[in-house]
């Protein structure tokens, strides 16, 4: 009886974990450049005496969806979307280099180029600084050019280049801050083949319809596990009454 209860309890627990991950994806359905988590259930044999057929389920994140989100036009000069594979290099909250697909850039009061989440955008020699200007342009290769205040377009000058990288997808892991890093902690080398488009943003790649269906399925699975626990309790009560009789 205890194994029956344990299997039902563990199943409910792992279903809740899967629901948490799925809800996290749903919550980020409108987050720029978001990559959905991929989860999977796996069966595990119950250790100890008893029938070898006794198994319980575990849920684990097995990676992230590499599908590119749609590029949506914004018309804003500082919005960039990566075309195809690749990442923007930024400075994480821990000071280390990290990577993102979110290209909603802005310039702070100190003239530093940042993402919408507040991370400094990295260049060839550290964070990219943008001097006072009347306009800013970002080229397909990540070059940042400005027209100085009071000058005409003929005075356009390059002030930096955004570091664009493209390490193998299997070496990239998502950190708790939502940024990606290489699994060995090393900085990825710049890749001249990565291209960005200006005036667009990449949408999240979460499939909302699929995530909603999965949420309903997981909710029903959780209800079944709870019913199994109630059945285990009822069986235990009936057994105790028979022993007392």
Automatic annotation (TrEMBL):
Tree of life domain? Bacteria
Q: Report keywords, A-Z.
A: Bacterial flagellum, Cell projection, Cilium, Flagellum
The keyword Nucleus appears for this protein: no
Q: Just give the chief location class.
A: other
Where does the Flagellar hook protein FlgE/F/G-like D1 domain start and stop, copy by copy? 82-145
Which residues belong to any copy of the Flagellar basal-body/hook protein C-terminal domain?
198-242
Has the keyword Lyase been applied to this entry? no
GO CC terms of this entry: bacterial-type flagellum basal body, rod
Q: Which GO terms describe its biological process?
A: bacterial-type flagellum-dependent swarming motility
Extract the InterPro entries matched here: Flagellar_FlgE/F/G (IPR020013), Flg_bb/hook_C_dom (IPR010930), FlgE/F/G-like (IPR037925), FlgF (IPR012836), LlgE_F_G-like_D1 (IPR053967)
Pfam families in UniProt:
Flg_bbr_C, LlgE_F_G_D1
Localisation: Bacterial flagellum basal body
Name the SUPFAM superfamilies on file. Answer: Flagellar hook protein flgE
Give the multimer and partner information: The basal body constitutes a major portion of the flagellar organelle and consists of five rings (E,L,P,S, and M) mounted on a central rod. The rod consists of about 26 subunits of FlgG in the distal portion, and FlgB, FlgC and FlgF are thought to build up the proximal portion of the rod with about 6 subunits each.
Give the PANTHER family listed for this entry. FLAGELLAR BASAL-BODY ROD PROTEIN FLGF, FLAGELLAR PROTEIN
Family the UniProt entry places it in: Belongs to the flagella basal body rod proteins family.
Q: Could you tell me what this protein is called?
A: Flagellar basal-body rod protein FlgF
